[in-house]
Amino acid sequence: MKQLMRSLKTTLLFFLVISLALLAGIVLQQNKSQRLLLQSSNENKAALASRYSNAGTIYSRDMTRLAYSQNGQRYYADNPELARAMVQTIGDYTHNIGNTIEGAYQDRLIGTGRTFFQQVFFDFAGKGLTGDDIILTVNSELILYAQQLLGDSRGSIVLLNYQTGGIICLVSTPNTYPDNVVTWTDIPESSLFNRSILGGYSPGSTFKAVTGTAWTESDLFDPNYVMYCRGQEPLLGTGSVTEDRGEGAHGEVDLQSAFQISCNHFFGDIGVQIGSEQMLKTAEQFGFNETLSVGRLIAKTGTYKTVPDDQFLLSWQAIGQPIDVNELTVSPLHLAMISGTIANQGIMMQPYLIHNFVGPLGSNYDATQPETFSRINSTANIELIKEDLIATVEQGRAYGSYIQGYTIGGKTGTAESVNDTGELQTNSLYTGFIDNPQHPYAIGMVIEDGIYDTPAIAGAILNKAIELNLKDN
């Protein structure tokens, strides 16, 4: 009997210790959650820092640390240039920048989004206050290279896997160092704005890939259609599309040569023939006017709005230069999605940044699965447009992006827009792809306020991506 009583006492003591341990873990976790709520109402940086004292690490796909906690402090990439290049995407623990990984996935990083039983399990393992790690799809070397290529310009480069939607590279300049954001000092104008996913630019001649696709969907489509370009003479009369200033007449032009020389007259002409209704339908097949997010991050596709049956306005819209009340914008991410769709047989993939999460005990979970975002109508001859973009690189104005031994398709663009100070500026754009199942990369690029050799920049970063032989993402 005494032995039984001792056994019962031992068992009760054991359960009491376990219960106290569980209670302590729950109380600590509740306190942590309470601190989170308090810290969202502008308390001091010390309190904000404590929130991330045991937060998980954010890694690039090549397992370079982009943000991590050590000895109770939050740090960003050890290479300051990498930290600067990623600041608008990664963010900071003070959340001075919105719409970032640090903010949008805060619950995963600090471990407050777990179920009761998950929390109990991690408490038992001694990991109850440790956050989860996040592995992104981006490659750190490619990010650094894109930052170098953009230099001091205002612009963005986005590279994605058009078969999966995984974003391999996104850099927006100007940017600044995370420490500057935390202390709120030395922050250049617009350096916290993520042009890559939120920018809205007139697409210029890059939009001709959409117009060309709409032409192949039109009932009036004729693969042998030829028109005569008259240069500076307006296509339909005063106020309608003309060639760029200083551009002479191109003479007889068909679809492929129109892509190669970027003939405004040809694309303005077929845009008018296509009509506003079909142009809108095709634009929306390419994702225009659709709601877009990148995981929990807010992003945006382009806008497309035009006055129905106004041929003069439509002739400009068809070449990617909206005028008057028409609207036409695109982000660098959307530019990459557009050319990726053409390379991917008319399927536009949902872009994503999160490859997977890693729990405190090292288990991988919630790997992102590829999803279709949009699809081009089966009546479109997407293969023809793809061939024309390849010809534009091999024999036309996008030749600078040519890479020996690889099939590259691409389209350049320039577009006028009004900057923040109300002045007219010219932006340089590029959209393109590698037609290779081992390297299924599409690129979107915008560099503001100047004429830049975007094909050469695109060729350089695409070549770098090939050299890196990137992992699946």
List the defining traits of the structure above.
single chain, 473 residues, alpha+beta, Beta-lactamase, six-stranded mixed beta sheet, five-stranded antiparallel beta sheet, 19 strands, elongated
Description:
- This protein has 473 residues and is α+β, with helices and mostly antiparallel strands.
- The chain is built from 17 helices and 19 strands.
- It has a domain at 198-354 and 367-468: 3-Layer(aba) Sandwich (Beta-lactamase).
- The strands form six sheets. A six-stranded mixed beta sheet has the order 3-2-1-4-14-15.
- α3 packs across α7.
- The longest helix has 38 residues, at 2-39.
Spatial order of strands in the largest sheet: 3-2-1-4-14-15
Mean pLDDT: 89
CA-based gyration radius: 26 Å
The end-to-end span amounts to 65 Å
At CATH's second level, what is the architecture of the domain at 198-354 and 367-468? 3-Layer(aba) Sandwich
CATH class of the domain at 198-354 and 367-468: Alpha Beta
- How many helix segments? 17
Superfamily at the CATH H level of the domain at 198-354 and 367-468?
DD-peptidase/beta-lactamase superfamily
How would you classify the helix and strand content by structural class?
alpha+beta
CATH fold-level topology of the domain at 198-354 and 367-468: Beta-lactamase
Net shape: elongated
Uncertain residue ranges = 20-43
